[in-house]
Amino acid sequence: MAKQFTDEDDALLAELGVEVTAKKAAARTPREERIIAGFEEIQRFVDEHGHAPKHGEDKDIFERLYAVRLDRLRALEECRTLLEPLDHQGLIAGSELAAPAADEDMDDDALLAELGVEADKPDIAELRHVRSSAEKKASEEIASRKRCEDFDRFKPLFEQVQKELDNGMRETRRFERKSEIQSGRFYILGGQKAYVADMEEPFANEHGNIDARLRVIFDNGTESNMLMRSLQKALQQDETGRRIIEPSAGPLFSDERIDGDEASGTIYVLRSKSDLPAVRDNRQVLHKIGVTSGKVERRIANARLDATFLLADVEIVATYELFNINRTKLENLIHRIFDPARLDIEIKDRFGNPVVPREWFLVPRSVIDDAVERIKDGTIATYRYNLGSAALEPVVKA
Question: What would the DSSP string read from start to end of 81-124?
Answer without folding.
Answer: HHHGGG-TTSSSTTPPPPPPPS-TT--HHHHHHHTT--BSSS--
